[in-house]
Amino acid sequence: MSSFLNFREPPFAGLAATERQRVSDSIDVAAFDTGDVVKEPGKRWRRLLIVLRGRIDAFDEDSNRARQFGVDDLVGARDLLRGDKSRKLVAALPTVCLSIPRDVVDWLCHNNTAFRMALGAEGQARPEVHARSEDDSFTLARVEDAGVRKAVVLPFESPAREGVKVLRERKADCLLVRRGEEYGMVTGTDLLEAASSASGIDTPLGDVASWELLTIASDEYLFDALVLMTQHQVERLVVMDHDKLAGILELNDVLGLFSTESHSLGIRIQRAETLEELETASAATLDLTRNLVDRGVTVARVVDLLSALNGRTMSQLFRMCVPEPVLKGACLIVMGSEGRGEQILKTDQDNAIVLADDLEWPDQQRDLEKFSSLLSRLGYPPCPGNYMVSNPAWVMTVSQWRERIDGWIRRADGDAMLDLTVFSDARPVTGNAELFQDVKGWMLERFQVTVGFISTFAHPVIRFSVPLNLFGGIKNPDEGIDIKKGAVFPLVHGVRSLALGNGIHATNTFRRLRQLVARRALDPATGEDLAAALETFMLLRLRQQLEAIASGLPADNVIRPAGLPRMERDQLRRGLRIVKSFQGTIARRYHLEL
């Protein structure tokens, strides 16, 4: 039976002889008729299937079709690795599969890190991932693996002196304060501030606690905890499982598990006091990106971390260039792919400023020109379209931004649509974020009340042709395809149009997809397909760009399918077909002519 299984293809390509033998000895054939239930929801997954003939459909908890598995697809990879019992799987056609028992899969995952990583990539419909066994903990560790610390909890009314006593006795860095079902955090710094207040050490702990806590579940990836800490510049997360307090996760515990990587990079950026220190830390992000990709970390997670580091770099530089009082009346925003949090390698400066209407800033132009110049020194080249804070046209008050956006919407010509597209992906980096949120909320309202505008805004989705021939194959596989124009842009802009039309504030495409599905503006199967396709495009482009940089060549967006492994080429073709279908969906929804 093992003759049907290709041990040269992932996730089986890296198996040792003894491991291949065990798979061969355990493999069986499973046959299903149309309509047969392969797995009921709530049931533990007991086998990994490889489809030889037919098709299996996966349905989510609301009975919506979430995914289709065809010939050569692995069924159950995600369910096995995540312990997911929620999906129902049904044979859509007469189907024949190879079947590998769960205990064999678990044994392989335990003994062969490369297999486990490649299996995870298969479960996400992503290109093959080559992992290094010594980095297993890096990508697969959960929050609980880092050792969640037991939380010290005191009542809201407890005096600060009791907090000092407890921290000293328990040698802890923080404690929690409870108010009903809500928790607040008190650190040593908070207690020092309480001691210097009018009430001194009799100040109730609840009055000095921080109540807007960042939380994470113990079964979530530790890497995601690191991203969350980096994004919000905190050193602790509260661990909550099903609304119940599990404990505290400290940054030192996270870094202890990730000791082989430069994860202190965010701290180095935050603590940089000179341009030279910031420049050195910022330059290290390219090596970090390369290491993360080599270790098999998914692109979506790499993007989150690197986007947070880029944001922290820009924030620190902005504070070096701008007087402290100005920060209360100004908000630095980034736009385009940086605004979406989908740009890994450093790209053009796409930024702007939202000012308070009453802000006085005498040296505004000089300070902003200095900021743009120093950003170039850190590796962010000037924007060819001049979407930069050194350009006064992109530095306006809240009232001026509202007027400018209203003008874009009323004109709706090519230049206006380009400017609006760039701004619609904006997110705040530093300063007074409420100024930007005021403008963003007003823009979303205008999108929804202006009759027919979304159709005009969505039209560029069909402007670029997806590089597929009449038979569904990739055009010019030897010459190469522009993955940005032919795949990424129509996908991202289609999702952007749907999100803005539905009043969604998120800018990241993956988050927009999740929220569109949650609002039933997009069916789950399409949402999952689009997310998988986008990650495929991003990973292939990133690999190509890293190879170009290593060879001393300029990084571009051209992918040469003929040079890809068969599985990656197949997934590229599948992703392009998904984009082609999505173009049709957008065209029908907004009455556009293909």
Give an account of the 3D structure.
It is built from 24 helices and 20 strands. The radius of gyration is 26 Å and the shape is globular. It has a four-stranded antiparallel sheet with strand order 1-8-3-6. The protein has a four-stranded antiparallel sheet with strand order 2-7-4-5. It has 594 residues and is α+β, with helices and mostly antiparallel strands. The chain folds into four domains: 2-123, Jelly Rolls (Sandwich), CATH 2.60.120.10; 144-257, CBS-domain; 265-450, Beta Polymerase, domain 2; 459-589.
Summarize the structure.
This protein is an alpha+beta fold.
Class from helix and strand fractions: alpha+beta
With strands numbered from the N-terminus, the spatial order across the biggest sheet is 1-8-3-6
Report the strand count: 20
- Name the CATH superfamily classification of the largest domain: Beta Polymerase, domain 2
Q: Characterize the biggest β-sheet.
A: 4 strands, antiparallel
Inertia-based shape: globular
Q: State mean pLDDT (0 to 100 scale).
A: 84
Number of helices: 24
Number of domains: 4
Question: What are the segments in which pLDDT stays under 50 over at least 5 consecutive residues?
Answer: 124-138, 259-263
Range of strand content: 5-15%
CATH fold-level name of the largest domain: Beta Polymerase, domain 2
CATH top level label of the largest domain: Alpha Beta
Radius of gyration: 26 Å
**Spatial separation of the terminal alpha carbons:** 48 Å
Helix-residue proportion: 40-55%
At CATH level 2, the architecture of the largest domain is 2-Layer Sandwich
